[in-house]
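My main concern about presentation is that the manuscript never shows what a single data entry looks like. Each protein is reduced to its one-letter sequence and a matching series of backbone shape codes. For the editor and my fellow referees, an illustration may be useful. For illustration, here is how one protein appears when written out as sequence plus structure tokens:
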Amino acid sequence: THAAWLDSEDGRFLVRVRSLDRSTGRWSATRTIGEAFDNHGGPELAADSQGYLHVVYFPHHHPFRYRRSLRPNDSSEWTRETAFGERCTYSTVVVLPDDSLVLVCRERTDRRWVMNQYTKPADGAWEGPRTLLHGNAPSGYTRWQTALALGPAGKVMHMSFMVYEGSDLFGEQGPGYAIGYLRSRDGGRHWEQSDGTPVSLPATPSTIELVEGARIRSGPANLRPGNMAVDPNGSPWLIYSRLDRQPFETWIAHPANGGGWQKTPLLPVIQRHWPHRSVKTPGQIVFDRNGTMYVTLTTVCADASVEQGYWGHQSAEVALL
């Protein structure tokens, strides 16, 4: 088991990794893979079918930096850094069955900020970008907070994201007003809604599949997603929160039979176990081999204001369901 993270040390942002030998229960030494520009440049770590580790990190409106482990299942040594992209931030990565990599990120261009896709063949260089999505505004601050997950045998790639944008490039920054979904059945070449309806690229808030929220910013709702996971039956699940009011609320959602999304609120579960607490993302879902779902959530005191509870409140605790 390999874990990568971002450390802050003496004003530097260090990308680090450790590995757990599950046969002995021992962790390796901590190793530094490289540096990030700031606290936005944390790593995305993935392993291919041969056990080689792939890591992407560094940018806040910069090119990504990429390295691969020199040996399978070994995080002690890496290839030299290579770079791709131009003004990128916030990445998510998956490895397809043919060991090619797919990365989705936010990228800033002179005209607008977009969601871009890069791909890397198993024995080739990074290719792209290809624009998947842009917001309603002709230009402006955006943050997609994208997550990718592969279905059984890697045949379907699922993507969730929020739509969060301001009215102009350096003006008002609005809340996340939509949680969206798209999927690809051919490794990211074509994208569609969950019922198979094709989506022309670049998609917009008017053409994505809407899980929650609105296609045009129209109210105070501030929606934030966590990750995605796919159950053994191939159904995608995502987790998201609403943060513009207290108590914060969180739901898990998956496609419902007959269309739409079935949503399960988690606030009642949390308050049944821990009264007077609210619940929000960062949140994560994962399934074990038997199909049991595990969910981690961030909880805070329910009397904390929206401003107080938004980032790293002193009452924050992690809950596992």
